[in-house]
Amino acid sequence: MSALLRKVVDDHWEHLEEKHVSGPEHVRTSDLPVATPLGPVLAAVDHVGNRHVLVPLTAHQHVRPDRGGAALTVRERPLENGEVYERYADLGCLRRDLDEVFTGLVADILAAVEEAPERPLKALYTVLARWRALFQHSPAPLTADRLAGLFGELVVLNELLAGESTAVDFWTGPSGHRHDFLVGTQGIEVKTSTATTDRKVRIHGVEQLLPPPHGDLDLVWVRLERVAEQGRTIADLVEDARRAGDDDNALLFKLAEAGYRPADADLYREVHFTVREQRWYEVGEDFPRIDPSSAPAGISDLDYTLDLDQQQPQVTDDPGIRDRIIRITQENK
Prior knowledge:
Shape: elongated
Helix content: 25-40%
Strand content: 25-35%
Structural class: alpha+beta
Radius of gyration: 24 Å
Largest sheet: 5 strands, antiparallel
Distance between the termini: 23 Å
């Protein structure tokens, strides 16, 4: 339903953009197929092409002007056509580069209004509160190490999405899960390095290389090189994932949990990486790791370094990686 609502609202905006709006206080509107007792929700476009959604108000409802961020604005907007005077809560996006994100927000609002058509303003505010963080910068920029780590996870996510369009559901790392991906009972832990020599990884805790219950674990090692221009940015990989996946909203919220929001794209647009190596290891019984059962009593928060040069990877080439992903996803359906 969300994908259908996204297409519907996008079609309305594109149609409205075909004609010029006469002045700064005017908007062109069209009725969206989401009804309330007060009338339909409206799509709107203003004189500079910014997109809006208008939710009808009762005679007693008022909207407090809200310009809490650089991208979103909430205001009360009256509309009059010579015969009818009506008032709306106007949610607008003031950054055209965030149009696609705004479409997801509006689709969520429309879905919420359909569920509770008698309270459209409440539906708008409830959904907006959850989404607003995506239109603001993260509290602190990602460090170089965290940026590279996120890049590596997105590389693997896009590998999974190439074979399974719902693979965003597998990405569990941002929520604090022990492993970065969980496909049924198959775990995938991603380690990213920008070192030019060696293949050493830092293991955080004695359980990080412990397979899921009744399952298996792969360790994926990704070597990145920071390059001037010919590489790819975080925003590039995010766009790849959005095109390949079914659920934009889930992807955006997981990115926010990982410390990256669409509004942050400009912060990292000069940071380009290229993938120099991707190696997949099966963490079997003979794979070197500290087993929780063998750790001395009273010891916790144990981190250690693992030298992967001493281990034979299961696959290192693109065809092998694709075959392995197909096997993992098919065996865990």
